[in-house]
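[SOLVED] Predicted holo structure with pyridoxal-5'-phosphate

Edit: marking solved, answer below. Original request kept for reference. I posted the sequence and ligand SMILES and asked for the 3D complex as structure tokens.
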Amino acid sequence: MTQRSLTDQAGYQELGSEILQNRDQHFFHPWDRPHLLDENARTVIMSGNAANVVDAEGNDLIDGPGGMWCINLGHGVEEIVEAMAEQARTMVYSTPWGVANAPSAVLCEKLAEIAPGDLNRVMLTTGGSTANDSALRFAAFYNNVLGRPEKKHFISRSNAYHGSTLLSATMSGKERDKTHVDTLSDMVTFLSAPNPYRRPAGMTTEAFCDSLIDEFEETIARIGATKIAAYIAEPVLASGGVIVPPEGYNKRMWETCRKHDILYISDEVVTGFGRLGAFFASKDVFGVEPDILISAKGLTSGYAPLGAAIISERLIENLKQACGDDPTIAFSNGYTYSGHPVACAAALKTIEIMEREDVCGHVREITPYFQSQMQTLYDIPIVGDVRGAGLMVAVEANEKANGSLEQDRAIGNRIDEHCQALGLIVRPLLNLCVLSPPLTISKTQVDDIVSRLRRGIERAHEDLVREGVVAA
Ligand SMILES: Cc1ncc(COP(=O)(O)O)c(C=O)c1O
């Protein structure tokens, strides 16, 4: 059997062209729609360097979404690659059951150091979904052990995204993701999304914020605090459309949780690891000290799958007290690859580089420029809202086209196609373009992104005018 070497660049590029033609027929991709399975010619990404990737046709593209909000330090960082290779050579795997290994132990110690407050105990998992799943299971386990098994309900929000395991998908509030899939809907109540752009007409942002807190209080009163285990929330809702809540909202929601003895799970899968200019945004940006903090994606800068649920020492102490020396109680949750040594080596190197290069400081410095340049897109008639925080932004094409699912998707795809032809990958989320570039981008690269995005949206607008979908 002859085997093509992937390191042979000529052969590799040729393989890419073949995949583009007909070799992507066996991969059921995330969010695949069966009716398109046989005609979905996807861009094939072949290589990456810093903020750019190259596809199978040789096009050099700016990686606007930073992979999937994860390539925080950019592609091809030799130091991370080398750390992973070195770890693989030295010790590629050991089980997380019964024994420990050096990179995962050191990583947990480091995460406890950089996480806020008394978040000191780390459950390593394989990604964001499994970290959320583990946190939710932990909250239920905690209440079982503390002798209050009725305290099991969860509170989430419309437009939230927490993952794709059954439990994390149950907490996700994106209605359009729930058609034809089952979730454990009895376990959760959804509050309104804190989206100022969608607030009732005539209402100030402050009054909107008050109404969201009132809604939470009313929900707690209706269900009963003794029945609610936890509230789970992204500080900025990411794939729900980069929803930046009104000033003070996250802190007030946290204070409400504390008042009613409801655990606060902060899902920082996207907002963590520098995206908002801090290792974790919960405390540094929003003044929240969560009971459980979730990390993934940027944790390894996207170089390997890894997730973490970082738990408050207070909860661990309560658990220990309630368990006493009962040997039958164990939190039976974990994965073969919980804290895989090679992934932990990637995370440790990511943290080392972030600290050494003050990546968070760079994000804080460049954020005002990035966000203000994005705001210049408002003059394009099809643009309804431009919102963001740190190095994440969404441009929402308004639904003059009436907001039906297919029409939203068509607008987003149109913008995506034009931008890609102009050398910029954007991530179409229905009628939204979402960007979360590598954290190391410069002002010149911001200018480049914004000018390509502008031309892409303008061309999509021209198409829609020509087709009579929107008025000239
Ligand atoms: C906020 C948030 N939580 C959880 C997840 C799930 O993470 P993963 O895809 O690594 O399982 C995502 C993924 O996009 C996310 O954006």
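OP edit: The longest strand covers residues 119-125. Thanks to everyone who chimed in.
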